[in-house]
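Chain A, query sequence.
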Amino acid sequence: MDNMDNNVNQETQRIPQPDEPGRRKRRRRSRRVKNSGCAGTVVYVIAVLGISIILSLAAIFIANDVFAFVKDNAVKEVVVSENTNLSDLAGQLDDEGVINYGTIFKLYVGVKGDSDTGVLAGSYSLNPNMDYGQIIDTLVNMSSTETMTITIPEGYSIAQIKQLLLDEHVCTEDALDEELNTYAFKHEFLQSELPAEEGWLEGYLFPDTYEIYKGNSTVRNTINTMLNNFADKYDEDIQAGADALGRSMHDIVTIASLIEREAQVDSERATIAGVIYNRLNNASEFPYLQVDASVLYGLGRTSGTLSEQDLTSDSPYNLYNHEGLPPGPICNPGYASLYAAAHPEQHNYYYYVAMPDGTHLFASTYEEHQANIAASDAAQAQAAAQAEANAAAEGTGE
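Chain A, predicted structure.
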């Protein structure tokens, strides 16, 4: 029995279990899955390391370009054309070897908020070893050791002075607007005009010939020089006249600006001043100054014929429907007009009308004025006909 039982047990032990092959297969598959998982991890780690190295190298190259840690020392002459801003220069700086990544430079100026900052036309010496900040500073704040002479004509408005400076490439429009409209100049005569805003310096940029430096960094000095000149020219004689009339400096400068734009002949400045004061002093009978030059200023113009629509405009400078003086000067007057505004001629004229040669016909009554208008119209028509005949003669070569 015992032997039989042992034999049976041995036989039983040798009989394979039904699920034994399956277990072996599963064990082999588990080893393969485990092996492939290890390989995937290695690939993933290698990929991450590779990407990290590439990104690190890119960051190093970009940082070197932005901050100029290690870059060539070689001066590049970059010529900037008209109406160019910093963002526009990214590609040009890249092409000319000043920077290596134009797109990064464009992003840099965009983040700084300088994309639309204008750059003065001209030639700039730039070096690849400059960082982006130095490049921008050189382009935006370029100044020259060379001076130039510029003449501001009498009667120019700020808009005209601005355009003159831009045409002469003295500075960029952005730099000029910032100084003209936002910088609070400290001159005593301007304190009542503060806060600084667009047009607040109108009337106080004295027309004259100046020797100035080109460049954005010198704009403030240029404007300051014009203001200093005004302070010198508004002398004791003018101040005494203003005091006698009971008028402020603002009034005198405003009246002088009207005279400057209306008078074409020096001898008539004081006469026109007298007409303005006669109307101001008889406001009940003559509430409106009816000065065409002021209407034109309010329309953003300096010349031309006024239409009926123009004369009904709601501008505060329309002195056909706004009483008294305009809100402020309409141009920057010269000394002769400032003096005339402080020393008007004493007479009984309330009207004047222009003649073709720049002189005026003055009248005390409306009837006289109507007769003068007729005479002026006839003279203007004759002058126009003569000009047309002269042009035709030139065209035929006679």
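The chain is about 50% helix and 10% strand. The first helix runs from residue 2 to 14.
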